[in-house]
Amino acid sequence: MKRIAILGSTGSIGRSALEVVRHFPKEFEVVALSTNSNAVLLEQQIRDFRPVLVCANDALGAARLSGLSGKKLKVFSGGSGLSEMVSDKRIDLVLLAISGSAALAPLLAAIEAGCDIALANKEALVMAGPIIMERARKKKVKIIPVDSEQSAIWQCLKNQEDAGLKNIYLTASGGPLRKVRKADLKKISLKEVLRHPRWKMGRKITIDSATLMNKGLEVLEAMYLFGADIDKIRVLIHPEAIIHSMVEFIDGVILAQLSVTDMRIPIQYALTYPKRLSNGMASVDFYKLSSLNFEKPDFTKFPCLKLAYQAARDQGTAPCVLNAANEACVESFLKGRLQFSAIPSVIEKVLAKHKLILKPDLNDICRLDLWARQEAGRIIPRMG
Length: 384
Description:
Blueprint: E1 2-7, H1 12-23, E2 28-35, H2 39-49, E3 53-56, H3 59-66, E4 74-77, H4 78-85, E5 93-96, H5 104-112, E6 116-119, H6 123-139, E7 143-145, H7 148-157, E8 165-172, H8 190-193, H9 203-211, H10 213-226, E9 233-237, E10 243-249, E11 254-258, H11 264-272, H12 303-314, H13 318-334, H14 343-353, H15 362-383
Parallel strand pairs: 1-2, 1-5, 2-3, 3-4, 5-6, 6-7, 8-9
Antiparallel strand pairs: 8-10, 10-11
Helix pairs in contact: 2-3, 4-5, 5-6, 6-10, 6-13, 7-10, 10-12, 13-14, 13-15, 14-15
């Protein structure tokens, strides 16, 4: 049995991962679970999967969990508690499904403990990619991508020589606003932004999908995960979301990974790797596919993607600042304090004020992450 911890078990990815675990009871033992604030759902998950370690980010949730009967259950609280929990030697694999920069500390703690990582968070890698990949290499820790696009690239590159890589094609559905005119973005509502045409995801990632910042973060993530030159990573709008990404080699061969739009598929492979197991899920029916369409991304309509490419070229602390400013903007948009169309403008202003550090350490990353959020907080009220 593979002993796993699922960080963010009450979120979309975490719940899907537990569905996979439920389907393969002889393959996995759930050792640890965590939630940000949904202690009620976590309580039910504890009854269903019987972990010995749990963590709630908020004190009230932790107090609620501490009241559960059962001497074997150890309860942790807050970010420091989460990092302590993943250091437990009973854990073989950590599925990191926490959204945003909060994933950085537990990711580093899990690597230090020698746990393999199934990575469903892109922000941590965007913030500190070189540091994370170097520490994983030293600890001989596998980082297995869970996002459908990164999983597709990882599978296509398997057993291929790095020198033969010509291009990586990151596919994108185009998000909920693909057909909306640029002029109409100023009056887009939160409800419209959260109506994704293909995927059921959390609010933050759905908003990032609408701005195409999610794809920009994936560009940065792919650069670090696969050691690829930024000029070899191309974004391709593919509305059907059947091809999850492609890899082109110098001899003209292109390998693509196809599957239906169901996150349980890449989650399952990350958990069962190197095995593939039959699961009864739907597969692509080629006889019903009328067409597969592809478009170039519109950098003018979606400038967040352009900003991400620039941060990738600048490297250093630029990706960290980009990510922090974006998180601040998304939070403000969710609270009705910032127009959707103003998100890229705020990020651009923060990046312009940023003093680049080319080879940052972890202290530099944490300091500039906080600075970028504060700077965005000063700019946002002036944007409306």
